[in-house]
């Protein structure tokens, strides 16, 4: 049911005039699940912020970027947890949900900043695994102040991009919204598609780099997850602008899963991937939290590969060796025939093959 609120003044609204949009069991279950994911992400990521700076076996630049990525996930979880608490309060006063596209974009600005900032950090961590970059970093070195300046520049760049997609949107006549979604609040269609395409491209480049370099067991699964989030969101937005009579409740529910719930799941999985795949993080966890360290799977020693003699011929079935041993035994019984038989093969002359 459509609710036209243009004739009302927000200060004079009552509960009967404000629609309650969070009264179905599906929305309540999804919001509860998002809250649990946000709390889990905060619980797992906050200790890693301190532990990352105590690790001495990781280069300084890479350590700072990994710490920034963990902080970004903490901000994402904290923002979504605050959003869920706000929705819980809005149940008792439905008029709090009434907003327009401008206020929605202002509210979703921190969420967009976290998405863009995390994508840029993932790409920079991928670039650090290139051998040419590693050689230059070892040759010139980095100071802690230099890393801090770079971190500030990355944050300013991400904030500028997020501001471009929110503040520079041509929203002359704001439209009322019952539920706030950033992709639906952007009035210029090309802005929404450029944003989603750019984020997908950044994670695609990161995935291609990590396929050939280290840390691929951490950020490749995350890159695939981000691809899934933005791809589903892009398909929903395309359907929203092309369909003549779109299903608005379906769009809201799918966007809630793809643009909110899945990123929270990635934020909760990130510290688990770090600890399970990087031995330095694993050792730091064992020292700080021995109980948690005992729950992690242990690394098994890799057995040493057998050394092969490259000068011997390829003989997978051992036929040459068996033939040589047979001829050697025959020659020992008939020592005079060994000099007369030019095709005799012994263990000593296997190298001729």
Automatic annotation (TrEMBL):
Asked if Cytoplasm is a keyword of the record, the answer is no
Q: Which portions of the sequence form the region Disordered?
A: 328-353
Tell me yes or no: is Transmembrane among this UniProt entry's keywords.
Answer: yes
Instruction: Please list the coiled coil stretches.
Output: none
Sequence ranges of Low complexity compositional bias: 330-342
Query: Which keywords fit this entry according to its UniProt record?
Result: Membrane, Transmembrane, Transmembrane helix
Q: Where are the transmembrane segments?
A: 36-58, 70-89, 109-127, 148-168, 191-212, 224-242, 254-276
Please identify the protein, giving its name as recorded.
Uncharacterized protein
Native source organism of the sequence = Mesorhabditis spiculigera
């Amino acid at each position: 049911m459509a609710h036209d609120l243009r004739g009302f003044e927000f200060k004079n609204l009552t509960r009967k005039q404000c629609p309650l949009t969070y009264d179905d069991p599906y929305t309540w279950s999804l919001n509860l699940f998002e809250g649990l994911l946000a709390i889990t992400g905060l619980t797992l990521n906050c200790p890693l912020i301190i532990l990352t700076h105590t690790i001495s076996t990781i280069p300084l630049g890479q350590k700072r970027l990994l710490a920034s990525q963990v902080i970004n996930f903490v901000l994402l979880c904290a923002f979504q947890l605050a959003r869920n608490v706000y929705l819980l309060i809005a149940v008792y006063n439905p008029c709090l949900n009434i907003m327009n596209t401008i206020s929605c974009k202002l509210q979703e600005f921190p969420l967009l900043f976290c998405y863009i900032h995390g994508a840029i950090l993932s790409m920079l961590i991928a670039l650090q695994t290139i051998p040419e970059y590693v050689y230059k970093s070892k040759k010139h070195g980095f100071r802690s102040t230099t890393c801090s300046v770079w971190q500030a520049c990355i944050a300013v760049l991400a904030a500028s991009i997020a501001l471009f997609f929110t503040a520079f949107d041509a929203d002359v006549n704001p439209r009322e919204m019952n539920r706030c979604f950033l992709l639906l609040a952007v009035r210029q269609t090309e802005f929404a598609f450029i944003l989603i395409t750019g984020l997908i491209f950044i994670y695609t480049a990161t995935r291609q780099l990590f396929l050939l370099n280290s840390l691929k067991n951490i950020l490749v699964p995350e890159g695939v997850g981000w691809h899934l989030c933005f791809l589903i969101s892009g398909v929903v937005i395309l359907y929203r602008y092309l369909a003549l009579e779109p299903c608005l409740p379906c769009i809201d529910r799918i966007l809630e899963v793809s643009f909110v719930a899945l990123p929270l799941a990635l934020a909760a999985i990130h510290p688990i991937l770090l600890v399970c795949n990087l031995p330095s993080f694993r050792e730091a966890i064992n020292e700080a939290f021995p109980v948690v360290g005992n729950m992690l799977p242990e690394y098994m020693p890799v057995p040493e590969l057998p050394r092969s003699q490259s000068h011997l011929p390829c003989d997978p079935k051992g036929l040459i060796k068996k033939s040589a041993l047979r001829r050697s035994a025959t020659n020992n019984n008939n020592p005079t025939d060994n000099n007369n038989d030019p095709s005799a093969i012994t263990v000593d002359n296997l190298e001729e093959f």
